[in-house]
Description:
The chain is of the alpha+beta class. The protein has helices at 2-21, 29-34, 52-66, and strands at residues 73-84, 94-103, 108-116, 127-132.
Amino acid sequence: MRAFQCIRFLAGAVLLGLIAQTPAHAAGWLEKTLYMTGPRYDAVLPPSEAALDTIAARFAQKEGRFWNSSAQILGFERVRETAFRPWAPGTIPRRFCTARALVSDGRKHAVSYWIGEDTAMIGMSWGVEWCVDGFDRDWSYSPRCKMARP
Length: 150
């Protein structure tokens, strides 16, 4: 009985090894039609002004929590859209915008941001990514917030 279990185990291991070595194939027609439908974007995004409160709140949170700074955005001016869906049609719809922010340091800083469809937490609604020029301390959008623009 023990020998039979050992042979079964070895045969299973050999079979598993052979299966693991076969090349992977792309999804077939049936798989694509059943559940690999791809994104369905409506390209319905709020205007550029809709994200300003979120940017101000997240800016204050980021500065206070990670950089031990009391910097806050006091207001925005010259808010404008710079591009809408600048890339290929199948990509996530994004509205790119710029603004000038009056920061509590007494200076006005350029803000580059985009609003994307289904890019919020778990893709439930629109999300926003932003960069305040002069406050990109971790260089996420370097140089000078260029990577936050189209």
